[in-house]
Amino acid sequence: MLHSHLTTLHAVSLGLDILCQDGSLSPETLLAGSGIRLEDLQRTDLRIAVAQERRVFLNAVAQRCDLGLEMGRRMHVSSYGLLGYTLLSAATLGDALELALGYPALLGTLFELRLRHDDGVVWMEAGGYSEVPELEVFNVEFCLASLKLICDDLLGQPLPLLGARFRHASPAYREQYARNFPCPVRFDDALNAFAFDSQWLARRLPLADALTHRDVLERSRQLNREFACRQALISRARQTLAEALPQAPGLDQLARRLHCSPRSLRRHLQDAGTSYQALLDELRYEQARQLLEQERLPIHRIAEVMGYSETASFRHAFQRWSGTTPSRFRHPAAAG
Fold this sequence. Notes:
alpha+beta; H-NOX domain; Arc Repressor Mutant, subunit A; 2 domains; five-stranded mixed beta sheet; two-stranded antiparallel ribbon; 17 helices; 7 strands; 53% helix; globular
């Protein structure tokens, strides 16, 4: 995600529930290559790397291209745990939305979210996307559809929309947008956003409670601090590994550079829902993807740049990370 390399399992669990509910797909098919186990889905405290979530949704959108809209219709405010109940107990819709945008790590967004005021109209904008292009449409649909549902849940009624805009081209399932965005919808636009009358920001929420709000707000702040401290270690570990690629330090050497013991580092990584190998694989995949997208180097030279003595070893590793071969990643149309 934009503000953290870790996220919860909420979205993954929701996607699996939607795609596996009729028994035509198995959870194992969708979790393939992600390193997430079925038993992990029962751990509400577990954090997973964004690369793991990315792998699941790459598997998922290959099965259902409109999954983002469907997930957005089901990602209720209660799905956001403590943050969700903090928003529900806020005084007004405006207060709740400002809080949500103030805790992007707890919200789990991949975007830079902001409320833009324009002559009595408020635009909820989602920009700054920097994840894999293959999932951009899915992530935009999921993000804005779930934000609209959050507004509906907070108000206890549908938030009337004035319009919705999307940067991507009109999809084949365009008619389904009306269920999430019952308003004029424009594609091939300059931004991803939906709009509503600014008067709704002052609307008092039906579940507002000042005492409860103060309590859960303080807990959310504490959770955010804990998450931030945990993430700081992950960020330092990622940066140290990234600067040393392709000759990345081992776990023991990495721990010394971070001024902690290997046991302590391993425990902190595990508590954060990741591992040394998962971080290293994520960084190597990012580097390989960038080199393949540039299309300047042949695949055997990319393997050498990344420290592989044999091209076959690189191909095997890339397929494990991405679910496809380097050549198919570089030229997907030709692979068909």
